[in-house]
Design a protein that fits this description.
By secondary structure, this protein is mainly alpha-helical. It is elongated, with a radius of gyration of 33 Å.
């Protein structure tokens, strides 16, 4: 039991009668201005924000079985 095309047409007509064409176009204009303002704010934030610092990964540790076995270590010559 969803909204079919006739239901949507009746709903659009009721909204049009309640609000009128002028009010609906005004609301859509305000909606467009809001989206434009949001995009500008996001662009300004991206420009003003410092770049994220890169954190170097820690050096890889030797596996536990090699570190515990002294016979497995290389001997200096």
């Amino acid at each position: 039991m969803g909204l079919s095309l006739p239901h949507l047409i009746v709903l659009a007509l009721v909204v049009l009668v309640l609000f009128g064409r002028g009010r609906i176009s005004e609301m859509m204009g305000d909606f467009g201005k809001g989206i434009k303002s949001f995009k500008e704010g996001m662009a300004d934030e991206a420009k003003s924000a410092p770049p994220a610092q890169q954190i170097a990964p820690p050096p890889a540790a030797a596996p536990a079985d090699q570190a515990a076995d002294p016979a497995n270590t290389a001997k200096p010559q």
